[in-house]
Amino acid sequence: MDLAFFRRTDDGFEPTPMARSMWAEDHMHGVAASGLIARGLEDQIEELGRASELVPSRYHVDLFRPPRMVPTRIRTRVVRNGPRIALLDAEMVQSSGDGEERVVARATCTYLLAGENPAGDVWSATERATPPPLEVAPPTSEPHVPFFVSENPWSDDFGKHQNAGRHVTWQVAVPTVAGEPMTPFQTVASIADATSMVTNWGSNGVEWINTDISLALARRPAGMEVGLATIDHVAHEGISVGTAEVFDREGTIGTATVTALANAKRTVDFTAPGEGGPATPV
Question: Which of 194, 6, 34 is nearest to 108 (CA)?
Fold first, then answer.
């Protein structure tokens, strides 16, 4: 099996078994979907000739239909291409059962021109998330099972982290497309879907299913390793908002937010027999 979420085809991209969601056998998880959308946006910004000067600073995905494990295309559109800003739209398109195509997710990405910070002082948080100790997770670009810390110390044993503590994860990105190098933006865009896991994971498991991903970045990650640390979780009448700090080995790079719906009837329980892989609900 290819260590990637998709294989390139003449018509687009075919999902591999690694793209399969834990919610249903025929569903694609959000990590794969978001990574592929980010790849499509990168293709478009390359066509504009601005990939080296612009930073993908705001990225938002609406996951309004469950992507299926079927051939998939990404189509993009340039909304604005200005001196200091570019705004791109993207849609994930799949074939439906009747042979027609339908959009299953849509995204927008704001690219900004990097420059120098102003001289004035501005308040910012001093307590920042940090990666696991080097003896637990030495630097690498090779994908591995995600590490977590919660009420229990850093480990890749998911069952030990099913608790009501603050969850933090450290992950290495799985390549989006087989045979293609992974990029920093695809890395953080795909791992950002795990915001739902760290912010919505509690004592009973993951009982919420995210309907979107919002990512705000001051810079791209420095490599293929990215962490997410829960900042807050707010829930009321079956709707939750989860916010996480996004960080790499050089420090904090931004925030990620997900809104989610209660999904207790299909809880991902990591203490149940047969569970234990990364939860990537869509």
Answer: 34
Alpha-helix residue ranges (DSSP H) falling in the chain: 30-47, 184-191, 195-200
Burial class from Cβ neighbours inside 10 Å (0-12, 13-18, 19+) for residue 150 reads buried
Residue 8 CA to residue 2 CA, distance in Å, equals 12
Q: Which two tokens stand for residue 201?
A: 């994971």
Which tens digit of pLDDT belongs to each residue from 118-150? 999 999 999 999 999 999 999 999 999 999 999
36 close to 5: Cβ distance less than 8 angstroms: yes
Q: What letter represents residue 14's amino acid? A: E
Tell me how far apart the 2 most distant CA atoms of the chain are, in Å.
Answer: 59
Beta strand 147-149 with 168-172: parallel, antiparallel or unpaired?
antiparallel
For residues 272 and 256, give the distance between their C-alpha atoms in angstroms, rounded to a whole number.
28
How far, rounded to the nearest angstrom, does the alpha carbon of residue 216 sit from its chain's CA centroid? 12
DSSP calls for 136-186: TS---SS--PPEEESSS-SBS-GGGG-SSSPPEEEEEPPPSBTTS---HHH
Distance CA 17, CA 11 (A): 19
Q: For the segment 207-220, what is each residue's pLDDT rounded down to a tens digit?
A: 999 999 999 999 99
Q: With contact defined as beta carbons under 8 Å apart, do 43 and 88 qualify?
A: no
**CA-CA-CA-CA dihedral for 229, 231, 234, 240, to nearest 10:** -40
